[in-house]
Design brief:
This is Molybdenum cofactor guanylyltransferase. The protein is of the alpha/beta class. 34% of the residues lie in helices and 15% in strands.
Length: 174
């Protein structure tokens, strides 16, 4: 996109701040997942964040970095590029969570594959993902496809809309 997607404004504030407000009622704490460059640019506004701990370019970096921060926690993961996400989908995840599975996620917008960037990851996922990374597999979707996970149908598929480029952003804000 050429800019930090978490800083895009959809609801009169940067998306990452909007997501903190959305998630706060459901979480003991809400963390931003940031790379080292983003961390260096953050001012002390009191918002906790977790810096990517691995030298990989994958959403797994943020997920595994969260587990390094607290390996016993189940982590609710929400991508910053889903501006249509509402509490309805968050509540569906929480209500239908299966902690005996490695993760609880929705099917993606095609209804065929897991959507890895909106889900709850259980502590046991960390070891599986660490092994996958060691084997060179950096796709969280592929890991989810090969493991026992709870797959749900999202209440409104539009909430999974990803905005990853300027064309998609302009189409959304029209």
């Amino acid at each position: 996109m050429g800019q930090d997607k978490s800083q895009l404004v959809y609801y009169q504030k940067p998306q990452r701040e909007h997501l903190v407000d959305l998630l706060r009622p459901y979480c003991q704490a809400v963390f931003w997942s940031v790379n080292p460059d983003q961390a260096a640019a953050l001012t002390d506004d009191g918002q906790p964040f977790i810096v990517d701990a691995l030298a990989i370019r994958s959403p797994l970096n943020g997920i595994l970095s969260a587990f390094r921060h607290d390996p016993l926690a189940a982590w609710l993961v929400v991508a910053c590029d889903m501006p249509l996400l509402t509490s309805r989908s968050v509540e569906a995840l929480l209500t239908n969570r299966d902690p005996t599975r490695l993760a609880t996620v929705f099917y993606d917008s095609t209804g065929q594959e897991p959507e890895p960037l909106l889900g709850i990851y259980e502590p046991a996922f960390a070891a599986v993902a660490d092994r996958a990374v060691a084997d060179g597999q950096l796709s969280p979707r592929q890991i989810l496809q090969s493991q026992p996970v709870q797959l749900l149908t999202v209440p409104d598929v539009r909430e999974l809309t990803n905005v990853n480029d300027l064309v998609a952003r302009h189409a959304l804000i029209r």
